[in-house]
Amino acid sequence: MADYREAPLATRPKTLDPNEYFNLSPDYRRAEAERAALRAGLKRQYQLQLNNPHRKELIEDPALNRWVYARANPYNHFKATKKTSLLGALFGVAPLFILYYVFKTDRVRSFNWMCAGLWVC
Amino acid sequence: MLKILIPTLFLLPTTWLTSSKWLWPTALTQSMLIALGSITWLNNTTDTGWTALNSYIGTDPLSTPLLVLSCWLLPLMLLASQNHLSSEPINRQRMYITLLATLQLFLILAFGATEMIMFYVMFEATLIPTLLVITRWGNQTERLNAGTYFLFYTLAGSLPLLVALLMLQNNTGTLSLLIIPYAKPLLLMPFGSKIWWAACMIAFLVKMPLYGMHLWLPKAHVEAPVAGSMVLAAVLLKLGGYGMMRLMIVLDPLSKEMVYPFIVLALWGVIMTGSICLRQTDLKSLIAYSSVSHMGLVAGGILIQTPWGFTGALILMIAHGLASSALFCLANTNYERTHSRTMLLARGLQIALPLMTTWWFIASLANLALPPLPNLMGELMILTSLFNWSAWTLILTGIGTLITAAYSLYMFLMSQRGPLPQHMLALPPSYTREHLLMALHLIPLLLIILKPALLWGWFAC
């Protein structure tokens, strides 16, 4: 295999910088190892389910379930902040009044034109 | 009329007396024969308009398309429910078919009623089988909430209607639809007559649903089993439209001023619910919001009370009934395979189930009102009559049409194209029953292209 050398002017990301990873404290390394072990456990569970020959159904993803539930039930956690009130007023209340005004004015005007004989079809 | 009513009524003993081996074929055959018999109603030969008339029931060109639609839907509902009910005890299956058959009976009586109180009683009566179907056979815990919303929104809207109808009966002496167009108008004090107008309309606007009062619909459609969703989307929403069209005759001079807020709500609702559709993750919820969007357009068409508006509304109601019901059946085919309504989980189905993609494609095109399908015909008529009413509505309806196309294509592309989820294994191939179901939905829709005059209502000229 060709010997990998990085491009001369390229910078390494922080996690791959050799000056960084010798600076890490043992506590941090232990925590990282625990998190890696948890991730590996989750991956193992997924692989077990994926390759299970008796599995017929979809693999359940609890994160997906939580996300779908959150997307389907926004009103349970709705809070009337300034931003949400502004959005509600702007898209829910104001257009109704604006449209009523627009339609009414237009219809009244064309009715008056029709009465005065000015309406050219 | 009795040719159809008596077989429908006797579907109830049929379901309870046939053996479990023959339950579904028998129920299906009987309802299919009823559906084929109901097509004869489309032949409106009388000059006065009312055919098959007796003291209580009659059909006229407005109610016949809706009657045929509701009769046509029963065999389709039975076809769609056959799979998910097959694992249930036989008496529960019988109960389910009984509920659907009684719903059918009430719907025929509602659309055929010539007396407004009978229409009202049947309008309310259809709520009960639907409520039972949603709350007892729905799949998630939210079905109870959905049933509550459904029942109480509609009941709260229709109680003022009862009062209004009784006032009308007191004043006019009759509520027969044959006489009411010729009766003298109701004379009330100015504010009272506005309240009376609103009382007459609110029930149907909640049922349609109009944008501000539509919250029951996504819940009810999503939580209902497939037959419940089908009948809700296809027929029960149209009960609202039909009621409005019937009552508009009596409400006349008031309507010129009172309709403005509701037309504004309807048209703004087209845009808002269309935009919500673009952000939905749940497939059935997307189809439910698209129903609200289309029905907003129908409400706009009815409220302006022009001949083209009414015609367009009626055509769009029938076409949307078939297309929306087809989409719910397709969503159910997904649900039966993955037991999830999330769109992300059922992607890329064109590779796995290519024949079903054809049906998805036609149904999505119907939803986005592709010419020459009747969906477009209805939408165009409503659009042009709204434009005649006020030129500014074109902006709203134009944007609405654009958003409709966007979310219909989004639904198609999300479900059919893209990568298949990698952990999806055992997707049973499409059953013939599912293909038959989709064909029976979409072939009538395609056939209507050839003779749309069947659906033009009173103004077939």
UniProtKB/TrEMBL annotation, chain A:
Pfam families: NDUF_B4
Cellular component terms per the entry's GO annotation: mitochondrial inner membrane
Superkingdom per UniProt: Eukaryota
Membrane topology: Single-pass membrane protein
Subcellular location per the Swiss-Prot or TrEMBL entry: Mitochondrion inner membrane
Transmembrane segments: 86-103
Predominant subcellular localization, coarse grouping: mitochondrion
InterPro entries: NADH_UbQ_OxRdtase_NDUFB4_su
Keywords: Electron transport, Membrane, Mitochondrion, Mitochondrion inner membrane, Respiratory chain, Transmembrane, Transmembrane helix, Transport
Function, as annotated: Accessory subunit of the mitochondrial membrane respiratory chain NADH dehydrogenase (Complex I), that is believed not to be involved in catalysis. Complex I functions in the transfer of electrons from NADH to the respiratory chain. The immediate electron acceptor for the enzyme is believed to be ubiquinone.
Subunit structure: Complex I is composed of 45 different subunits.
Family: Belongs to the complex I NDUFB4 subunit family.
Protein name listed in UniProt: NADH dehydrogenase [ubiquinone] 1 beta subcomplex subunit 4
Organism: Gadus morhua (Atlantic cod)
Lineage, broadest ranks: Eukaryota, Metazoa, Chordata, Craniata, Vertebrata
From TrEMBL, chain B:
Top-level lineage group: Eukaryota
GO cellular component: mitochondrial membrane
Single GO MF descriptor: ubiquinone binding
Entry keyword set: Electron transport, Membrane, Mitochondrion, NAD, Respiratory chain, Translocase, Transmembrane, Transmembrane helix, Transport, Ubiquinone
NADH:quinone oxidoreductase/Mrp antiporter transmembrane domain sequence ranges: 113-404
Domain NADH:ubiquinone oxidoreductase chain 4 N-terminal: 1-110
Subcellular localization(s) per the UniProt record: Mitochondrion membrane
Membrane topology classification: Multi-pass membrane protein
Catalytic activity: a ubiquinone + NADH + 5 H(+)(in) = a ubiquinol + NAD(+) + 4 H(+)(out)
Membrane-spanning residues: 62-81, 93-111, 117-137, 149-168, 195-217, 224-244, 259-279, 286-304, 310-330, 351-370, 390-415, 436-459
NCBIfam families assigned: NDH_I_M
Protein role: Core subunit of the mitochondrial membrane respiratory chain NADH dehydrogenase (Complex I) which catalyzes electron transfer from NADH through the respiratory chain, using ubiquinone as an electron acceptor. Essential for the catalytic activity and assembly of complex I.
Descriptive protein name: NADH-ubiquinone oxidoreductase chain 4
Organism: Gadus morhua (Atlantic cod)
